[in-house]
Write a structure and sequence with these properties.
This is Nucleotide-binding universal stress UspA family protein. InterPro entries: Universal_stress_UspA, UspA. The protein is an alpha/beta fold and 290 residues long. It is 43% helix and 21% strand. The strands form 2 sheets. Strands 5-2-1-6-7-12-11-8-9-10 form a 10-stranded mixed sheet, sandwiched between helices.
């Protein structure tokens, strides 16, 4: 919602420095897409890339129970979850991830490393995020049903303060889009979007929701004034509200490469549901700023 009073603006030149990028990895296609997005940003920022693979301790404990069963994806038949086979599968995943990360680092000519830990996935991710300036995750979940993964949803609900990029690979040269709806989080999102656009020499498109004629024009004026202070220009696009459908349509129309907006408010399940809905149908990366 747009506040009645003018929100505080960041000081000119105050940008979020990205020196270390943390990317959560597994053997899934979503994870590979996240790795590609993370590598691309690491190359742009000359940042160190920190890969993290978490061996799920809960799953390993379940495998030790005699009554635990898993259902085959192709056969649909239940079978015993074997602890030894699970350990072997994890070792194979680590070897694959090491190979993919090594190739990516060599191709991008960037520094990086892989950390393998055993624990709860989200807990270990939050611990590792303390040493990072940006966290990159894959969308996970079921793309056909437009549902995000449970780990991503838990991260969105968590106390994570580091900017979070839900990565998808997109062709270069496309603009960075940012939702500006007033308030401090919107200014932080605008600053992050401008930094990305400058780094990548792409255009910047500021999305202004039409919540009322005068309010929308006021938002445009505020964003334009802030950008002018930074010596920057952008194109403004008025959209009919800030619903997931409107944002997805704007991304498609503008062929956006990254959409930047503020993260869902903690404790607000409706905000979280909207973010999940947005991610479910988004064709580009989403950068969430606290």
């Amino acid at each position: 919602m747009t506040p009645a009073a003018k929100p505080p603006e960041p000081e000119p030149g105050n940008t979020h420095v990205i020196r270390r990028i943390l990317v959560a990895l597994d053997a899934s296609p979503h994870s590979r897409e996240a790795l590609e997005a993370a590598v691309e940003l690491a190359v742009r920022y000359r940042a160190e890339l920190l890969g993290l693979f978490v061996e799920d301790a809960n799953l390993l404990r379940l495998a030790e129970l005699p009554f635990t069963r898993e259902v085959g994806l192709s056969s649909g038949m239940p079978r015993r979850l074997d602890a030894l086979q699970l350990e072997q599968s994890l070792r194979a995943q680590v070897r694959l991830i090491e190979k993919l990360l090594r190739q990516s680092l060599r191709h991008g000519q960037i520094a990086g490393s892989l950390r393998v830990v055993r624990g709860r996935i989200v807990t270990e991710l939050l611990v590792a995020a303390r040493d990072a300036d940006l966290v990159v995750l894959g969308r996970g979940g079921n793309p056909h049903r437009r549902i995000i993964g449970s780990n991503l949803r838990q991260v969105l609900e968590s106390t994570l303060e580091t900017p979070l990029l839900v990565g998808r690979k997109a062709p270069p040269g496309r603009p960075v889009l940012v939702l500006f709806d007033g308030g401090e989080p919107a200014y932080r999102a605008l600053a992050a979007a401008l930094q990305l656009a400058r780094r990548e020499r792409d255009g910047l498109v500021v999305l202004i929701p039409r919540v009322g004629g005068a309010e929308a024009e006021s938002l445009r004026e505020l964003a334009g004034r802030w950008l002018e202070q930074q010596g920057a220009q952008a194109r403004f696009l008025f959209i009919q509200g800030a619903s997931p459908e409107m944002l997805q349509r704007a991304v498609e129309t503008e062929q956006g490469r990254i959409l930047v907006t503020h993260a869902p408010t903690r404790g607000m399940s409706s905000d979280l549901d909207l973010t999940e809905h947005l991610l479910g149908g988004l064709s580009c990366s989403l950068l969430l700023i606290r």
